[in-house]
Amino acid sequence: MYAELIHRFIDAINDTDAARRRATIEEILTPDCTYTDPEIAVEGHDALDEAFAALQQRIPPGFRFSLTAPVDVHHHQARFFWRFGGPDASAPTGSDVAVFADGRIRHLYAFFDTAKT
Asked: Which ranges of the sequence are coiled-coil (predicted)?
């Protein structure tokens, strides 16, 4: 069940249809959800939807998030690894931790991988 919510979360980030994206957000995330990454911290459906819409406006056509490994789930939390970009193998990567409540995602914490120098 939780792994499916993560797959649907990735689909929501990638969805360019505003109404469908919003419906998915409301279905899979709690109303008091939070999302935090190195660049933003938002709370609630409205703020998360606005963040996804802003991302869609900034990215080149064809850029998408995709999972790079199976979702790792235990208790009421999950860890998942992703890449973001086009078919280029050098696309940015990262990982997220999700915490669940009431059968939905309540908190998401994203970490971006950085290039080693």
From this structure: none
The tally of domains found in the chain comes to: 1
Q: CB–CB of 42/51 below 8 Å?
A: yes
Lookup: tokens for 87: 């078919």
CATH code for the domain in which residue 48 is found: 3.10.450.50
Per-residue pLDDT of the chain (117 residues; tens, 9 = 90+): 999 999 999 999 999 999 999 999 999 999 999 999 999 999 999 999 999 999 989 888 888 899 999 999 999 999 999 998 876 667 889 999 999 999 999 999 999 997 544
Q: Is residue 117 part of a domain?
A: no
- Has residue 40 been placed in a domain? yes
